[in-house]
């Protein structure tokens, strides 16, 4: 992790999952403490908390919507934790979860903290993915599993509880090597937008 000063450590976390599983709403609940009435694509949100006698800042990066850059390893290499998200009302998003896990592990085999989140538990009448089967499977893999709702905490693991558990996992984890600090991820994001702009410019020239 990067150390901003002697009293605060910074962790980079990537959030992976298919489109419309509620990643943006989850991050807003985690970092802004609110459920957004309208959702807009976000790249990063951060939150500071106190853990293990230290202030830690966790930057949550949603890179999943940049589908045309998923073949590059760079965004997967500079992280300290991973959150995989699926929608409990959408079996397709659960099946695709394993594609996200395989893709991440293809580029990063380090044993950093990872958790699985089944989101949208407030839509219990539409729930398709069975809790116990998922919990049993990931328990054998040693990966913590939670079911949440970005909208309400009444019917699931509270968002704050999940955040505190994950923060503790990272703050107590012994990382094999020091990862690059937050600016390295910012550089990757800047390069991503530059490449996207170049692609759009080429398309416009070909089709004008």
Name the features.
6 helices, alpha/beta, 39% helix, globular, Small_GTPase, seven-stranded mixed beta sheet, 208 residues
Q: How is this structure best summarized?
A:
The protein is α/β, with parallel strands linked by helices and 208 residues long. It is 39% helix and 22% strand. Strands 1, 2, 3, 4, 5, 6 and 7 form a seven-stranded mixed sheet that branches.
Detail the topology: elements first, then pairings.
Layout: E1 2-5, E2 8-16, H1 23-31, E3 44-51, E4 54-62, H2 74-77, E5 81-87, H3 91-107, E6 114-119, H4 131-141, E7 145-147, H5 159-172, H6 182-207
Contiguous uncertain segments of 5+ residues:
177-186
Strand content: 15-25%
Radius of gyration: 17 Å
Give the overall silhouette.
Answer: globular
What is the element string, with H for helices and E for strands? EEHEEHEHEHEHH
What is the average per-residue confidence, as pLDDT, rounded to a whole number?
76
Helix content class: 25-40%
Distance between the termini: 47 Å
Number of helices: 6
Q: How many strand elements?
A: 7
- Outline the biggest β-sheet: 7 strands, mixed
GO molecular function: GTP binding; GTPase activity
Family: Belongs to the small GTPase superfamily. Rab family.
Protein name: GTP-binding protein
Keywords: Nucleotide-binding
Description:
- The chain has helices spanning 23-31, 74-77, 91-107, 131-141, 159-172, 182-207; strands spanning 2-5, 8-16, 44-51, 54-62, 81-87, 114-119, 145-147.
- By secondary structure, the protein is an alpha/beta fold.
- Strands 1, 2, 3, 4, 5, 6 and 7 form a 7-stranded mixed β-sheet that branches.
- A hairpin with a 2-residue loop joins strand 1 (2-5) and strand 2 (8-16).
- Belongs to the small GTPase superfamily. Rab family.
